[in-house]
Amino acid sequence: MGERLGERLDEWRLHLARPDALIQLALLGLATGMVAGGVILLFRLAVEGAQAGLLPGAEAYEALPPWLRLALPLGGGALIGWLFHRHGRGLHVLGVARVMERMAYHQGYLSLRESLLQFAGAALTIVSGHSVGREGPHIYLGAAGGSLLGQALGLPNNSIRTLVGCGVAAGIAASFNTPLAGVIFSLE
């Protein structure tokens, strides 16, 4: 039974490498959008939950006492520095630039370690009041969702690259509430 299932999966992977696998790729794109949306939702809940616990109102950093307005970014920066020093060895760039680099030179393969580091680092950066947006992390996390899904299913490189594009589109759509713009951006 297990051997037969393995043979069927191998046939499916080979089929996805052919140009006539449009319906299967569309379904995988839908799954990627759902995975990316779930990860991005978790990211937003983590950021908004932490901000709700620290701040008197939504993004009301100016309402904090002066000492905390100084301590929060300093402490957050120190924590982010430690996180990337400890776990970010070999990473020189994250965010959208990393997605573009991995697409250009590594067939869209993004690692789980980098994805977790992006999630935690970006959340800490936003919560501690540093001047970053959520768009870059959304794009990266969406792309990582597509890449990791494709890797988990053992898909061929061209299919993984397609799923990364679907994840990028989901990230843009989640950031700006513009699904069509997400698709156009990922095609670019």
Overview of this structure, please?
The protein has 188 residues and is mainly alpha-helical. It has one domain (31-187): Clc chloride channel (Orthogonal Bundle). It contains eight helices and no strands. The longest helix has 33 residues, at 22-54. One of its GO terms (cellular component) is chloride channel complex. GO terms for molecular function: chloride channel activity. It is found in: Membrane.
| Class inferred from helices and paired strands | mainly alpha
Give the name of the CATH architecture: Orthogonal Bundle
Overall number of structural domains: 1
Q: What does the largest sheet look like?
A: none
N-to-C order of helices and strands: HHHHHHHH
Number of strands: 0
Shape: elongated
Write a brief structural summary.
The protein is mainly alpha-helical. It is 76% helix and 0% strand. The protein has helices at 2-16, 22-54, 66-87, 96-105, 112-127, 135-152, 157-176, 179-187.
